[in-house]
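Blinded run. Sample ID left blank on purpose so nobody reads anything into the name before looking at the predicted structure. Input follows.
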Amino acid sequence: MGVLTLQIFVSLTLVVGSLILFAVSARRGDHEHADRLALFPIEDDTGPHPAALAPASPPENDR
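Blinded prediction complete.
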């Protein structure tokens, strides 16, 4: 019977802890962070490609 009481106590402690952490997260607005990151571009694609800017290597002489 003591194990069952301990298991219920631990389970209720985890539930209360998760509810508290959810309330703190909802108050801060952390759940919107992923939405904002999804709107940012991965890399800037407005300019020319970096490979196009690299100078061409001189041809090698085959003797």
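Unblinding after everyone has recorded impressions. The longest helix spans residues 2-28.
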